[in-house]
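Quarterly update from the structural biology core.
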Amino acid sequence: MKKEYDKALYRLLQILKRLYEGEVLIAKNLALDFNVSPRTIRRDFTRLSYFPIEKTSDGYKYEDGFHLLKSSKEDEVLLFEMFEQFSKSMGDGASKIISKQLSKLHNPSAKHPFFFNAVIEDITDKSELFLIMQDAIEQKRVVSLEYLTVTREVDPYKIASFEGFWYLFCKENNKYKTFYFKDIQNVSLKEQTFTCDIHALQVMENALNIWFEAQEEVFEVLLHVNNNIAKHLSRRPLSKTQRVFKYYENGDIEISVHATSDSEVIHMLKKWLPNLKVIAPLRIHETFKKELQKYIDA
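Predicted structure, tokenized:
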């Protein structure tokens, strides 16, 4: 029962996040994204009925003029209290940043039913920088910053967390880059603004890990998954693009994911060794075998 609740909670939070970002959501597309039935998605929207979500001919969206932080209903308060408790595992800096977004919660309850065993980098020493960068991203302002002793001007797209570490996903001189956040210093906003490339953001959000290359073409990777981790990856996909296309009697499965670089796939394989094997592209399988052989021979 708990597993099903966790899946439902994840879907609800993702739906709210996407609505908050201005998306118009279509039930059948959400069903494919979360690998559930359209009926389940409709039930999810019923659960979210206390939010001002309207259904139009195009799909579900927030009512015009609504801002998430203006609502004050009990169920929403509970939801945001959960977010606040999660932020505490990220350090005082994260709590400060998230509190800026959840400032309407003036009197959270003393006891909380949520516990998160999440290993996330403490960003306390970068809290002010986070707030500055947050403003730059929201206003689509170019920023000047120092990274690895080099002064740069970049278009900041997103502050992203991969495997517990924080990065800035940005564009510099027409090339997409990821900067380790704790190595960023001396940030200031410029007067210039920029236009965000939605495709690049989608690539980042679908990435397997920090080794993605947003400027490269997306390709499909076919993987054989050992039964030791098949159930885990079914519950927690490697990325939003994961699809299961074959089941074996012994519990093994075959899945597909999207990637943008061979390194992105190889670093994922290292994490799941020996329970994950590349079926295609074959070049990645051969490269990974050579890397492993070098390690064995060393």
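The chain has ten helices and eleven strands.
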